[in-house]
Amino acid sequence: MKKWIVAGVVLLSGCTQITRYETAVKTPAPADLQGVWQTDGPQRGLVSDQAMANLIITADGDTLDCRQWQRVIAKPGKLTRVDGDYVNVNRQVRVMPLVREGATLHYDKLTLRRVDRPTIECQKALDAVKAQPEAAVIQTIQIDALADNPASGK
Hints:
This protein has about 150 residues and is α+β, with helices and mostly antiparallel strands. It has two helices and eight strands. β7 and β8 (about 110-115) form a beta hairpin.
């Protein structure tokens, strides 16, 4: 009986829940979301003031959430829509809204700006995802010095 009440509340509230990665429908990305997005400076959503994040969104709707500080943690996912809004769902079934505000993208407590290319480490992670298409997390990438990374702008 409780299950039916909860199901009714979810249906009435308009909330759609993604409970399995495989059931989320990959959605092609609109032009204003496609590309490489990167943090610029310290962010409250990152572990350190020296950490940085890239979010890569392909035209087909594949995504890679790549964060780096003392190590690289990259999580592949896909773009989908929930209640009409674009969200990124990763293979660990974490669903995070994407909100555009002018030239800025708000995502998972981060403020990102579009850049020409990902950091060297995130490009390596993107290549690793292609080699390991079923991996939920890529953590095998070695960190190059952030100061020497042309994509970091430092």
